[in-house]
Design a protein that fits this description.
single chain, 281 residues, 3-stranded mixed sheet, 32% helix, globular
């Protein structure tokens, strides 16, 4: 594992001064520099196509679970050498935003990542991270970074008790702290008052033409207490079908699914359908 460097930096973004605690390695800082060079020239008028083009530059990057569970306090973790499904989507979106804005500064990147990863764009402890992906979508829609289009493509509203983290406290080291635990419970209580929209698995193929390359796909689940188990980016491949570009737990690396999305999901245990969000930074 790469040795991480703990530091506090002051980052100036436009007119604003933001103090951030950031965890990263020198190798990751170099990887950021290399990535800005690799994505130069990938900007498309269609932002979704930009997302896919940048996402594919990560292909082959190892899947690594729990990359954000670092240290004893919540920091903005930058890890470009190992990605889980959520950090893959977050990093692709952050780099896509930078490319659209014509920015290549590490400070701009960390600010973009903080905005995407945390409630209302501000890191304020462990519970401020958007742990449940339905909340990740809703909060980033509130920020204006994307739009939940699930209802527009045939999705139906459902309600479900969301409490997996609090009922599996032992799986989350940060929840040993009672303060973090209580704040996560509060977040879950809020989510339990909200409905979520899901396109059922058996209706995905017939509505596939409404999904665009670059849309963010979240895999809904029947597992008790959970809303989403996996996420990735839609990509329309040469066969004309929508596939999933994702950090795969099967191949243990970033890849495009061999099967179209609707067929791939039939092999995912306890999948009930998808949520679809369209980036619009």
């Amino acid at each position: 594992m790469l040795k991480k460097i703990w530091l506090t930096t002051i980052v100036i973004i436009g007119q604003f001064l933001t103090a951030q605690q950031i965890t990263f390695s020198q190798e990751d800082k170099q990887a950021f520099e290399d990535k800005t060079i690799a994505i130069d020239g990938l900007l498309e008028n269609d932002f979704g196509k930009t997302m896919v083009a940048i996402g594919k530059t990560f292909m082959g990057t190892p899947y690594v679970a729990k990359t954000l569970e670092v240290g004893e306090i919540e920091t903005l973790v930058i890890n470009l050498h190992g990605l889980d499904c959520t950090t893959f989507v977050e990093n692709v979106l952050a780099f896509s935003i930078l490319l659209k804005k014509g920015q290549s500064d590490f400070g701009n990147f960390t600010q973009a990542l903080e905005t995407i990863r945390y409630k209302d764009g501000k890191l304020d402890g462990y519970a401020s991270r958007l742990h449940y992906f339905s909340e990740w979508i809703a909060n980033n829609e509130k920020k204006g970074l994307l739009k939940d289009i699930t209802s527009e493509i045939g999705g139906i509203e459902i309600t479900k008790d969301i409490n997996f983290m609090s009922t599996h406290r032992d799986l989350y080291p940060f929840l040993k702290d009672d303060g973090n635990f209580q704040k996560i419970q509060a977040s879950e209580n809020y989510l339990n008052d909200q409905s979520i929209c899901v396109l059922p698995q058996d209706q995905i193929e017939s509505n596939e033409h409404l999904i665009q390359s670059g849309d963010i796909i979240a895999l809904a689940t029947s597992i008790n207490g959970l809303d989403v188990t996996h996420t990735g980016i839609a990509t329309r491949e040469n066969d004309g079908r929508i596939h999933l570009l994702h950090a795969s737990t099967g191949s243990m690396e970033v890849e495009v699914t061999e099967l179209p999305l609707s067929e791939y999901l039939k092999k995912v245990k306890k999948n009930t359908g998808i949520m679809v969000a369209r980036p619009n930074p």
